Amino acid sequence: MRIDVVTIFPEYLAPLGVSLIGKAAERRVLEIRTHDLRQWTSDVHRTVDDSPYGGGPGMVMKPEPWGDALDAITANPLPESPEVAPTLVVPTPSGRPFTQAKAAELAERSWLIFACGRYEGIDRRAIEAAADRMPVEELSLGDYVLAGGEVAVLVMVEAIGRLLPGVLGNADSARDDSFAAGPMESLLEGPVYTKPAQWRGRGVPEILTSGNHGAIARWRRDQALARTVANRPELLARLDPVTLDKYDRATLAGLGWEVRDGRVERTEAEDFVDKQGS
Ligand code: JE8
Fold first, then answer.
1. Are 186 and 235 in contact (CB under 8 A)?
2. What is the pLDDT along the chain (278 residues), one digit of tens a residue?
3. Which helix (H) or strand (E) holds 64?
């Protein structure tokens, strides 16, 4: 996969040279090129922003440097597949959610261009002109406000990159295969432990050292269910009840959740007394 990143802060993307993604780049599974948007300015001040039409706070990124940057980058297609159009990814708080499913979809593309906005964002016309020539995905990391798209690109490239064949070690990739539906789109993961068996007066749950693999799997499933109820109850409503066995249903019942007309729902208050109150 080829990835181009356009930013006014190329040094912000330095982490892409480290760890999993950095190794994939070294091994040529990924080719990452970071570009300074100011290359495509022509004035002495290398201006990339101007005041917003209609008034209001802050500054807006001018369309011309973006148009020239995308023209220049797309003029150099992959030598091995010159006919493929890249997909432009634009992180923005007003985009569609960037999810694991979206990461998997983008991992199938051979060429991604990421456009990092700053200030109040990029002049709309630059995005529209790009969309006339290539697929454009405006995506948001989540419901909080960042100062620009760079951190979002780091997150997205890591999530996409680890899905590419040959990027993860065998152990990890095999594990992901066994979770074909994808973690997070089902249940949260439970707690994990390693040696030493005693640490600062704390032991490891006895079940994990019992050697009873059936009981361990059941315990882990119960932990995953309990964490999901506590931290992400909205995920339970998305669960397909056919994936829940009678033990899952008993665990959920103890946590105040049940299968009602084909959906996982909170047990009605009169039928369930929450042990934590509320
Ligand atoms: C950004 C961002 C994602 C997320 C992404 C790109 C470019 C319009 N607002 C822009 C006004 C306040 C400041 C904002 C700064 N900004 C934020 C994000 C994002 N993906 N989940 N949160 N924030 C830009 C400029």
1. yes
2. 999 999 999 999 999 999 999 998 899 999 999 999 999 999 999 999 999 999 999 999 999 999 999 999 999 898 888 899 999 999 999 999 999 999 999 999 999 999 999 999 999 999 999 999 999 999 999 999 999 999 999 999 999 999 999 898 756 665 654 444 555 558 999 999 999 999 999 999 999 999 999 999 999 999 999 999 999 999 999 999 999 999 999 999 999 999 999 999 999 988 888 766 55
3. helix 63-74
Query: 7: closest CA among 160, 81, 113?
Result: 113
Q: Residue 114 pairs with which residues in a beta bridge?
A: 5, 89
Specify the ligand 1 atom closest to the Cα of 98. 20
How far apart are the CA of 155 and the centre of ligand 1, in A?
14
How far is CA 248 from each of CA 17, 194, 222, 225, 243, rounded to the nearest angstrom? 43, 26, 7, 8, 9
Write down the residue that tokens 């990143």 correspond to.
Answer: 5
The CA distance from 25 to 176, in Å, is 22
Residue with tokens 């959610």: 97
Q: How far is the CA of 154 from the centre of ligand 1 (A)?
A: 14
Q: Which residues line ligand 1 (CB under 6 A)?
A: 91-93, 117-118, 120-121, 140-142, 144-149, 152
Ligand 1: centre distance to CA 114 (Å): 14
Which residues are annotated as catalytic? 93, 120, 162, 177
How far does the centroid of ligand 1 lie from the alpha carbon of residue 271, in Å? 44
Best substitution site from 61, 146, 155, 158 to test ligand 1's pocket, by max atoms within 8 Å of Cβ?
Answer: 146
